[in-house]
Design brief:
Helix content: 10-25%
Protein name: Fe-S cluster assembly protein HesB
Organism: Peptostreptococcus canis
CATH architecture: Sandwich
Structural class: alpha/beta
CATH topology: Hypothetical Protein Aq_1857, Chain: A
InterPro entries: HesB-like_dom_sf
Number of domains: 1
Oligomer: single chain
Distance between the termini: 31 Å
Radius of gyration: 15 Å
Order of helices and strands: EHEEEEHEE
Strand content: 35-45%
């Protein structure tokens, strides 16, 4: 597993971990659902499980469920200045309905 992250994202994640002293220090990347634009991913502080893969960047440990990694591949984390965008290297075809979208799906 490989994770690429903008330096600003790493700095923000270090700050979050330092402020959350009662939380785990591993950063979980997880599938959060599908929408018109495709799969959505999130980040959360979590404990590493036996089914997880991990990747370290500058003393930060990123973890992801092995099955999700197999489906979506390596990840890129961008800092949006108030949030993060987690982008998978590959996406399997996702069957998502656009019934609730306010705009058109293409």
């Amino acid at each position: 597993m490989k994770v690429e992250a903008a330096q600003t994202a790493l700095e923000v994640l270090r700050e979050i971990i330092s402020e959350q002293t009662d939380q785990p220090t591993s950063i979980r990347m997880y599938f959060a659902g599908a929408a018109c634009s495709g799969p959505s991913f999130g980040l959360a502080l979590d404990e590493k499980k036996s089914s997880d893969l991990s990747y370290n960047i500058e003393e930060l440990e990123f973890i992801m469920d092995a099955q999700e990694y197999e489906q979506f591949g390596d990840m890129l984390i961008q800092d949006l200045g108030g949030g993060f965008r987690v982008i998978p290297e590959k996406m399997k075809d996702m069957q998502s309905s656009c019934g609730s979208c306010s705009g058109g799906c293409h």
